[in-house]
Amino acid sequence: MSRHLQRDIEAINQELLGISSMVEDMIDKATQALNERKFELADDVVKSDPYVDQHEVHVEEECLKMLALHQPVAVDLRRIATMLKVNADLERIADLAVSIAQRAKALQEYPAFTVPDRLPQMVVLATQMVRGVMDAFVNIDTGAARRIIAMDNAVDRFNCDIISELETTMKTRPEFVSAALHCFSATRHIERIADHATNIAEDVIYLVEGDIVRHKHDLIQETPT
Questions:
Q1: Per-residue model confidence as pLDDT tens digits over 174-196
Q2: 199 and 89 in contact (C-beta within 8 Å)?
Q3: Total structural domains in the chain?
Q4: I want to staple 91 with a disulfide (CB 3.0 to 4.6 A). Which of 6, 56, 79, 217 is the partner?
C-alpha cells in the first residue's frame, strides 16, 4: 500500500467512526423518545440526519476517488469496497432512527398506550450490535463480527414476540389500533437496524477473509474452519 493510499484510507476510517458515533446517538435518542416518551429528543434525531447524509456522500466520493487514482488490488481493494458498504449501511441506520423518532412523536396522541415490555430489551440488543460491529470493523475482528451475526436471531425473536403482542392489543383494544400500528412500525425499524449491523459484520469478514458470507449464516462459525 502506498503512503498516499494509506493516508486516504485512514482519513475515511476516521470519518466513518464520526458517522457511527452520530448514528449511535440518533438511535439512543429515537428509542428514548419511543420507550420513555421523551418526545423532544425526536426532533434532535431529525435534525441530525442531514449531517449523516452529507458525510455519507463525502465518504462515497472519496472512496471512488481512491479507486480511480490508486487502482488498488487485493486487500486494499476489499478495504475500500468495505468502507463503501459500511458507509451505506450507517446512512440507512440513520434513516431508520429518524423513522423511529417520527413514530414516537405520533404516539403523543395516545398517552394511555404503553409500549410492550420487551421493546426496551430489543433496543438494547440492537444498539449493542451497532456499537459492537463498529468495534469489530475498527479492530478487524472477525470473531466479534461472527458474534454480532449470531445476535441477530435474538432480535428477530423479540420482533416476532412484540408484533404478536401488538396484534393482540389491536384485537382487544380497538382504541389503540393506530398507536399499536405506530409501535409496530417502530419495532420493524429496530429489527432492520440489527439487519444493517449484520450486513456490516458480514463486510468485516469479507474484508479479512475475502469470503462473501451473505446468506450463509447457518454455516458461520465463530472462528473460520
A1: 999 999 999 999 999 999 999 99
A2: yes
A3: 1
A4: 56
**Whole-angstrom distance, CA of residue 120 vs CA of residue 18:** 26
Provide the pLDDT confidence category of residue 223 given band limits of 50, 70 and 90.
very low
The full DSSP string for 126-161 is: HHHHHHHHHHHHHHT-HHHHHHHHHHHHHHHHHHHH
- Within a domain: 225: no
- The range of the structural domain enclosing residue 199 comes to 3-219
Residue 224 domain flag: no
**Tens digit of pLDDT for each residue in 6-52?**
899 999 999 999 999 999 999 999 999 999 999 999 999 999 999 99
Q: Report the candidate in 219, 212, 217, 174 with the shortest Cα–Cα distance to residue 85.
A: 212
Q: C-alpha cell of 157?
A: 425473536
Pairwise CA distance, residues 216 & 225, whole Å: 14
Q: Rounded to whole angstroms, how far apart are CA atoms 215 and 219? A: 9
Q: The domain that contains 123 carries what CATH number?
A: 1.20.58.220
